[in-house]
Amino acid sequence: MDPRLSVIDRRLEKVENIIAVSGGKGGIGKSIVAAASALVLAENGRRVGLLDLDFCGPCAHIILGTDNLYPEEEKGIVPPKVNGISFMSVISFTAGCPWALRGSEVSNAITELLAITQWGMLDYLFVDMPPGLGDPALDAIRLIKRMKYLLVATPSKVALDVMKKELQVLKELDMKIIGILENMKRKESEPLRNKLEDLEVPFLGSLDYDAHLEEAIGNVPELLKTGFARQLREAVERFI
Amino acid sequence: MHEWALAEAVIVTVHQEAEKQNIKQITKVQVRIGELQQIDLDIFKFALENIKEIYDDMFLDADVIDLEVESSALKCKVCGKEWEFRDLSHLKEDENESIHFIPETAHVFMRCPGCGTPDFEIIKGRGVWIQSIEGVL
Ligand SMILES: Nc1ncnc2c1ncn2[C@@H]1O[C@H](COP(=O)(O)OP(=O)(O)OP(=O)(O)O)[C@@H](O)[C@H]1O
Ligand SMILES: [Mg+2]
Ligand SMILES: [Zn+2]
């Protein structure tokens, strides 16, 4: 019997909302949306957490401009605070080295981290999901039943198709969907909204492709000044 | 003390399982502790007693929890070599500490002694596992 499974709900019991930022396809802006949403809400005085569940390619810490994070030990481990956010990432345990890991062991590591992390009282916990419908996606569904999904898609046909597949799985498994957020919209692209009508899922808005976003990565005050952050604030208002 | 979280997991699971099986008094719980996780048994026992006090339960005596360390078996997915965690003693203190928190980080700090790949499997001796729960109905 795996004892860890019985305490995961307890570790999260004082977290009001658990929001996975997902979308199936890689590179569509899941991490930046998860991290920036957390920052925007923390800016408004909410108690916010951010969990980077992309164990093999963590990058939320790069967006937040931090490394060398060490959780405190207190009846488990307590996420360190970064820019007012309780932040948990495997970078605290990998010493800046790569972590090549097979699916079953990713699963075990996710279970362990969820069983020992004491999140405490939070209004929102954002979970930065890796791409795909592999072990991490299935573990999130299996282990965090209360998770709600914020799906990111870009105007690309490719991203849309993969997002729809994930949506189909989430619906089949009765997971709660917050809505779809369009990212990297360009002036010439056909509005994604038009292509979502048959999905019966709220459309949360569009974030334009922001040529200045890259310069602001790793610099939170600058990140919060970008056009991307401005548009995200409006979108976040629609789902909180 | 991060062991607290795992000790609590053991106690909560025993409770849940006892309820499922209508057990009124627990007589024996066998817990295997994988060598890889390097849990200090005294600390773990202390945590168990501590939690038992918080839960204030009469039906589970911390003494009936039997802790047994399980030696590890690691096996290379590429060349098939098998070895034990204790065979490799070159790890630094903070590397061992990472493995203590998340045993799978062994793949960050260890390589197959046969071919040098990080692509090996933890076959046994990983972490905390409840082997059996016995009690009277
Ligand atoms: N609206 C945007 N404008 C400009 N650049 C963007 C925008 N959204 C994301 N990016 C950039 O695209 C890249 C990928 O973003 P991000 O890492 O957040 O994607 P991801 O979906 O998390 O990727 P992965 O699937 O690898 O986890 C980053 O360099 C990010 O800065
Ligand atoms: Mg990402
Ligand atoms: Zn090998």
Give descriptors for this structure.
heterodimer; A: 240 residues; alpha/beta; Rossmann fold; 10 helices; B: 137 residues; alpha+beta; hypothetical protein PF0899 fold; 2 domains; three-stranded mixed sheet; three-stranded antiparallel sheet; 4 helices; binds magnesium ion; binds zinc ion
Describe the protein:
The complex is a heterodimer of chains A (240) and B (137). Chain A has 10 helices and 10 strands. With 240 residues, chain A is of the alpha/beta class. Chain A has a single domain (4-239), classed as Rossmann fold, CATH 3.40.50.300. In chain A, strands 5-6-2-7-1-8-9-10 form an 8-stranded mixed beta sheet, with helices on both faces. In chain A, strands 3-4 form a two-stranded antiparallel sheet. In chain A, strand 3 (72-73) and strand 4 form a beta hairpin. In chain A, helix 2 (30-43) packs across helix 10 (227-239) and helix 5 packs parallel to helix 6 (135-143). Chain A starts with 7 loop residues before the first helix and ends with a helix. The model of chain A has no long low-confidence stretch (mean pLDDT 96). Chain B has 137 residues and is an alpha+beta fold. Chain B has 2 domains: 2-71 and 125-136, hypothetical protein PF0899 fold; 73-124, no CATH class. Chain B is built from 4 helices and 6 strands; from the N terminus they run H-E-H-E-E-E-H-H-E-E. Chain B has helices spanning 3-20, 41-55, 93-101, 106-109, and strands at residues 25-34, 65-70, 73-76, 82-83, 120-124, 128-136. Chain B is elongated. The model of chain B has no long low-confidence stretch (mean pLDDT 93). The chains are: A alpha/beta (240), B alpha+beta (137). Magnesium ion is lined by residues 30-31, 54, 59, 128 of chain A.
